[in-house]
Amino acid sequence: MELDQIKKQAFEEINQAKTLSDLEQIRIKYLGRKGDLTKILRSLKDLPLEKRRKLGPQANELKEIIQAEIKKKIQKLQGINLRAQKIDITAPGAKISKGHLHPISLILKRIEEIFCSMGFEIVEGPDIETEYYNFDALNIPKEHPARDTMDTFWLKNNKISQRLLLRTHTSPMQIRYMKKNNPPFRIVVPGRVFRYEATDASHDVQFYQLEGLMVDKDISVANFKAVIQEFIKAMFSKDIEMRIRPSYFPFTEPSFEVDIKRKDSKEWLEVAGAGMVHPNVFKAVGYNPLNWQGFAFGVGIDRIAMIKYKIDDIRLFYSGDLRFLNQF
Amino acid sequence: MKVSYKWLQDYIQGKLPGPKKLAEALTMHSFETEGPEKVRNDYVFDIDILANRAHDCLGHLGIARECAVLFNKKIKFPKTKPRESRTITTEDFVEVKIKNTELCPRYCARVITGIKVGPSPKWLKERLEAIGQKSINNIVDITNYVMFETGQPLHAFDADKLAPAKKKKQIIVRQAKKGEAIVTLDEEKYELDSSVLVIADSRDPIAIAGIKGGKKAEIGNKTKTIILESANFEPNNIFKTSKKLGLQTEASLRFRYGLDPNLAPEAIDRAANLIQKIAGGQVTKGIVDIYPFKIKPWKISLKIDKVRSVLGVDISEKEVVKILKSLGMVSKIVSPRKEIVNLAKKLIGKPYKYGASTSQEAPNLFDCSSFTRYLFRQIGIEIPRMSIEQIKVGDKIEKEELKPGDLVFSKGIGTPHRDKDFPQGVGHVALYIGNNKIIHASKKKKKVVVEDLARHLRSSQWRGARRIIKEEDNILVVDIPTRRLDLKIPEDLIEEIGRIYGYEKIVSNPPFGLLSLPRIRDEIKIKDKIKSILEGLGLTEVYNYSFVGENDIKKCKLNSEKYIELENPLSIEFKYLRRSLITNLLKNTRENLKYFERFKLFEIGKIYLKTKNKLEEKEMLSGILIGKNAQELFFESKGLIDLLLNKLGITDQWYDDFQASPEWTEEVFWDKERSAEIKLGNDEIGFLGVINPEILTAFEIKKPVVAFEINLGLLIKAVEEELIYQPPSKYPAVIRDISLLVNIDDKVADVLNIINTVGGKIIKDVDLFDIYEGEEIPQGKKSFAFHIIYQAEDRTLTDQEVDAVHKKIVQELEKNPEWQVRK
Known about the structure:
The complex is a heterodimer of chains A (about 325) and B (about 800). With about 325 residues, chain A is an alpha+beta fold. Chain A contains twelve helices and nine strands. Chain A has helices spanning about 5-15, 20-30, 35-45, 50-85, 105-115, 130-135, 145-150, 170-180, 220-235, 280-285, 300-310, 320-325; strands at about 120, 130, 165, 185-195, 205-215, 240-250, 250-260, 270-275, 295-300. The radius of gyration of chain A is 41 Å and the shape is rod-shaped. Chain B is of the alpha+beta class and about 800 residues long. Helix content of chain B is about 30%, strand content about 25%. In chain B, the strands form ten sheets. In chain B, strands 28-31-32-36-35-34-33 form a seven-stranded mixed sheet, with helices on both faces. In chain B, strands 6, 8, 9, 16, 17 and 18 form a six-stranded mixed sheet that branches. A six-stranded antiparallel sheet of chain B has the order 21-26-22-23-24-25. In chain B, α7 runs antiparallel to α10 (about 265-280), α8 (about 235-245) packs across α9 and α18 packs across α23. The N and C termini of chain B lie far apart (about 95 Å). At the A-B interface, α5, β1, α7, β4 and β5 of A face α2, α8, α11, α17 and α18 of B.
């Protein structure tokens, strides 16, 4: 076959090719080991020099031209394919594994931000406490009825002189902090606390509390109201109402309870106990109660999380159940 | 406590507001009140009486008092006096002996003869049933009724069932004898010992004091004569006994919080009156009343300014006085110095008695210091009993500074009291009243007298003067009725004023004061950062219990002896404090494998360690990865830790072969051949590894698990060191490049080392921006290309300076014959 003829025929076939495999067939037909053009190229060595010089470059050029033409056509065909592959944008995205923070962590972080913005310092204290810090220094002497309402986990320890326990509230940090620092100050203390009591949907053997303490020359109930209102407002939406009613704690006088309620709900929920620091607490840390006034409060963090995320069972927090945790 | 609306109305003049409004007001000003709940033709509330008000509010009358204050009503007290027999006296009939007056400060007894026991009238039954109490018979119901009315528990004994006595029946209040037992009204038998206070006849216990009556003297249908008891018992002993016997009753609940002993006769009269009306009979004359140490009303002094400052409201003196009055507290505004002098003048002529009791014998008998103590109590100030103690309170003043109301101390007649502060002795105290005159209880004159100070000092040497009254302003002196055991200090009164005024009326006021910058300590910031990095890396945070059980410890092949044990665990699952976070993470793994195939968890929490002589808490960071292939998990976990540390600014971590455990964790959960120690420089900060398959089997986990545990304290410390801020240099940086041909096996670290060593301080940074091997590079060689950033903290570098250093670096690199700097 003459080169011209090969060229014409090959181009025609390439032009008509519909699929990539058509093109492969064409390539094999002309450029394969037994292909038409290959045969010519192979036969060159048997030709006389003059003819070889003339035909050689022509055949080689044609080889390149056909290769290029096939390549062009492949690109064309692939282009068609690409355009044909439409994306169904309604199909679900790929599942990318994602982590989650614990709801209590989320609440704690928010609380830190809110109180820091009001100039409070964050401090932390130990879980294992002595009887002195957890009770005596907080105006709860041995026989005080408040001791049996705060059911306590006691630790077995033969070698240590003081009786040890798991703190039943974060208030021991009031004493620890005041013994080391002088007023004026404002602090918050987040932490884990423990109660020896039967568990149910609203009680667990451990939970989180946030202690707050502010002491200065003339800190008042009105000041406390402003601080706690700001906190509740920042923590929840504006659709939350708050009220303060009388309560009793041995380490504050007067004492009160803070309740909140969603505007669309009828039920008031207790979120914090609070009061003005009792003079005996100031005496225990070596302050003169005539010179200082302050408020203290304890917020139930689990409670806040339960209200915020509408969680109905406190025990879920400590279940480690991914079906629960993956929602945060 | 359950409270009936109709019952409350009995004690109120005029009409109470509706039950709903009442509940709201009580919640906002007194106690949290649930309800009202409609019960038949009545409404019932459930009121959560606060512990400090149990002594006056665990009865309808107490709640009615609160209601009267809140709605500006007057209280209508029920008629209490019985009609007494003119002939038979109670004393002729019964004798009461208290063996231990500390445990039983007061005992009142009455006798009623010829009663008829039977069912209670309808109204009484309904009242008791409304608040959930069962009707028994008219006598028992009346004692219960009076308790739910006044808060004072009462008990009735069948007098004929008491041990026969020669002349009169005996009631003995004593501690139980070892081996004694009692069968109570509900047929339970209790073994007693000397810690238990009992009411006994001349032979046996007939009641556990303040807790429950005995079967022996039970009121029955045939009972004709009863002895009524209305007593006061010491709270702590009641509590201890009640706890010990596992017996809590309506009576023990009330005694446990303490009761006003002055309530006892009121309640017994009320009960006798009702019994007479309902069950007939004759009430004998008088109460047998053993009450050796009488409680009298006391006074508290209050400054109006303090009330305003604590509450943060501008409340008027008039309003304060009005609130206190509504609560039954009479108050008067006095000038403290004038008041105390006037009080003293009124006592002139009262007889002297050495050692007279201030609370029991004043104002009829005094010695010198009980006289001054009494005077100060009248203006609400408490001072010590003895003159040598009184000289230590208040401010020391000189003779020339004396003002009316100050205390003057002298040696006194006879031997004075001495101590290390006053070795020469202080034996006498007097009140200075101005014009060089004193008033004092004089031992010599045997009465309270006015005397000239100078004249007094001639016979009794001067020892000093003290000023107790520091306030020149008027103060409010408030009389406290004995039923308000909770009111002891000014702050207690401020609470009363605050709650009646209404906390809702206090306008919130942002505190001024220190303008400190908000401080979040690094530690908390770093913890938050770690959490969010791990979240980003696909780990889910869990919070586990601080406790582990015996079983968990066994499954981990550990020894429970090392664990801190609870004295009173709630269950065997919660018997010990965790020593590692991994134990509970393994439990999480087992549970979550029921629903998920692969997951990654982490926890930040405390572990609790016991060393020789102390207990220690350490905060840890642990993670656990669950998947298909242990090796893949190991490397994923290692990559995770690297990324975490790098994001925290730590770059010098490395992993060492697992070796013997350090002190802070002896918990070995890992397969030793497939675990590593995580190190920063020389410090070990944690472990990483494949969990031992035997442990996994014990936890019924069928997938490979890799876990890591890092000491958070050490990690935070390392991060804080990295976090030290370097201010950016104010001087320009110069950048030079170096391209170096090295052997294919040579390490970047070796080249960097030379550059940094030669360059020294003026090298700010070295960036490797290209590694190339291939075309144009000889076989067996590769090329590194670096940007070297030169910058000084204190000056602008000159070209010459940089050139010189750069040249030296080139020379140093070329000392290696295999290396070639490409020009």
